[in-house]
Amino acid sequence: MPTAPVPTPTPDKEDAVTPSFRLPTAAGTPYLFLLPGLVILGALLSVPLYKVVEYSLYDNVIVERNPTFVGLDNYRDILGDPGYWSAGFNTIVFTVGSVIGHMIVGIGLALLVNADIHPRARTFFRSMLVLPWIFTAVVVALNWQLLLNPFGLLNYVLDWLGLITEPLDWLGNPDLAMWSLLVISTWRGYPFIMVSFLSGLQTVPKELYEAAEIDGAGFWHKFWHVTLPQLKPVIFGVALLDLIWTFQLFPLVWLTTGGGPGRATEVLSTLTFRLAFVDFEFARAATVAVSILIISAAFTVLYLRNEARRL
Amino acid sequence: MSRIEISNLVKMYGSHKALHGIDISIQPGEFCVLVGPSGCGKSTTLRMVAGLETISGGEIAIGDRVVNGLRPKERGIAMVFQNYALYPAKTVRGNMAFSLKLSKMPKAEIDRRVNEVAEILELTPLLDRKPAALSGGQRQRVAMGRAIVRDPEVFLFDEPLSNLDAKLRGQMRAEIKRLHQRLENTIIYVTHDQVEAMTLADRIVIMRDGRIEQQGTPDAVFHDPDTVFVAGFMGSPPMNLVDCMVTPGGLRLGGTELACTLPEGLRAGDRVTFGIRPDDIRPAADLPGGVPVTLPVDLIEQLGTEKLVHFRAGPHELIGKTGGRVDLAEGTEQRLAFDMAHAFFFDAETGQRIR
């Protein structure tokens, strides 16, 4: 009896390319590669984070071998301390002031260095204007101290111009210290904003400006109706990021005013440092640190949501 | 409606001369199309009229004003861009009203104008949408609406249809033509598409390498080209252009003798560029008065109502036409006829027409 030919099964594509060696769980492979990174991150981030939160729930941590668990007592203490509230207020002033300063100077300079000038001049200005960003905070602080010192360059120039009769102590006068700090922080922080806006500006189609010009728009109308709407997503994201960074900024404040004079420029980050390493009140320092963490986390969630919406 | 006078217009980019002294005189209400290959200077000319490029030499007058030193908004022009250039953050209404708001027109008048133009362009249901929510054709109409509401003296179009698909391009072309008939404004329109130029223009200006090759009515530039470039540029499929040797009785086309009367001044042994449109090469039976030649058919392209017949004459490939129903086979020898009454001859060196 003739038999019907049996069709030879063709190997499906996957079989054809599967290597002879196979990891036991193919789906888990990516996680194996992630493991070293996760371990390092975990050790460097999660452990200290956990420790700080733990410290905030104990009294006499670090200085005593057996600290006592006090629950939320430290938080109650901190919230009842006027020093904490004044540092909180200063932090808001410093953060909001710095972010506004960064934004205005950053956008202004981005517009300038985006202008249609000789390419060599443009490269020169772009490089020069990024400089404040690449110095370490120590160098920035020292330079500004030299400039703002009662016998420093700024007072000398103001005196020479006849604008002041006696030298001003820019960083030592409680009425001037925060303003001076804001100027330093603006100088230090604008380059990131400028670079971000510059990249945003370069994506604005040239035709939009030309159309606006034909429609009769001048500089401000073009800025308001073309540039700003195109930059809006960048502005919001960058402002939030800047807010997160500035909110917990420590070295610049500590190295210029040290939070002083008195408590005039004390912000939450310098308060944390002072409580921990000057007063050796590690538990209270940890508590303030946790409060910074909570607020920063809230901003971060906002930032991530904004980025997700943009994508 | 304004007259536009462009005289001896020169554009320099550093030491590179992009425009070599252009002269165009556009009558009030005329639809003038600048056409030519990429880099020929057509867009530069338009942008100089708009005031978006500086003028290196010469003069542009709109109406009775020389506009060389005027800013774009002072020139009485409106422009439609290739990429539409709609303000993405504004609605259709906001886009159309923007220039009127800047000119401080009363709100009631702005609304009246925007609504009226939206009605003409069938944009009324889209007035509150943002450009991102519109199709390419709709965006194009908004860009035109934005130009029309201003009621300018002159419309400038910079390749406005090149981002649309073929079908939509055809529709929009007709719409622009209708709009011109209705508004009767002076228009300068830039395109690299010679079909657009032929269908829209009252006057076609054909440019090449920063110079005008020829200008005139679509009929004139198509049927009476001055240079071999114009002959080859206008028309699709393009005119057949072949370098030939003049013989005592006509031309030698590949190995074939083509008996014809040549312009005076051409002598046996001269080299000429011989031009003939595909429409003027047909099967001998279709063209009784033509000069018959037997040549091998290389390829046939069926277009529906007609067929393009590619055939070889020695080293040259030529294209002829026949009806869509005519039965021809590739690879066979066919008896074709050339309508030499519509043949053109150009100087093989300079490309200038020999009449």
Structure description:
Chain B: One of its GO terms (molecular function) is ABC-type transporter activity. Chain B: One of its GO terms (biological process) is carbohydrate transport. Chain B: It holds the Pfam family ABC_tran. The complex is a heterodimer of chains A (311) and B (355). By secondary structure, chain A is mainly alpha-helical. Chain A has helices spanning 13-17, 29-55, 73-79, 82-113, 119-134, 137-148, 153-160, 174-201, 206-214, 219-247, 251-256, 268-278, 282-310; strands at 58-59, 68-69. Chain A has a single domain (69-310), classed as Orthogonal Bundle (MetI-like fold), CATH 1.10.3720.10. In chain A, strands 1-2 form a two-stranded antiparallel sheet. In chain A, helix 5 (119-134) crosses helix 8 and helix 12 packs antiparallel against helix 13. Chain B folds into 2 domains: 4-233, Rossmann fold (3-Layer(aba) Sandwich); 240-347, OB fold (Dihydrolipoamide Acetyltransferase, E2P) (Beta Barrel), CATH 2.40.50.140. Chain B is built from 8 helices and 20 strands. In chain B, helix 5 links the parallel strand 7 and strand 8. The interface between A and B is medium-sized, with 17 and 24 residues.
CATH class value of the largest domain in chain B: Alpha Beta
CATH class of chain A: Mainly Alpha
Number of strands of chain B: 20
Distance between the termini of chain B: 38 Å
Strand composition percent of chain A: under 5%
Average pLDDT of chain A works out at 82
Share of helical residues of chain B = 10-25%
Write the topology of this structure.
The complex is a heterodimer of chains A (311) and B (355).
Chain A: H1 13-17, H2 29-55, E1 58-59, E2 68-69, H3 73-79, H4 82-113, H5 119-134, H6 137-148, H7 153-160, H8 174-201, H9 206-214, H10 219-247, H11 251-256, H12 268-278, H13 282-310
Antiparallel strand pairs in A: 1-2
Helix pairs in contact in A: 2-13, 3-13, 4-8, 4-10, 5-8, 8-10, 10-13, 12-13
Chain B: E1 4-13, E2 16-26, E3 31-35, H1 42-50, E4 57-62, E5 65-66, E6 77-80, H2 92-102, H3 107-120, H4 136-148, E7 154-158, H5 166-183, E8 186-191, H6 194-200, E9 203-208, E10 211-216, H7 218-223, H8 228-233, E11 240-247, E12 250-253, E13 256-259, E14 271-276, E15 281-283, E16 291-302, E17 306-313, E18 316-323, E19 333-338, E20 344-347
Parallel strand pairs in B: 3-8, 3-9, 6-7, 7-8
Antiparallel strand pairs in B: 1-2, 1-4, 4-5, 9-10, 11-12, 11-14, 12-13, 14-20, 15-19, 16-17, 16-19, 17-18
Helix pairs in contact in B: 2-3, 2-4
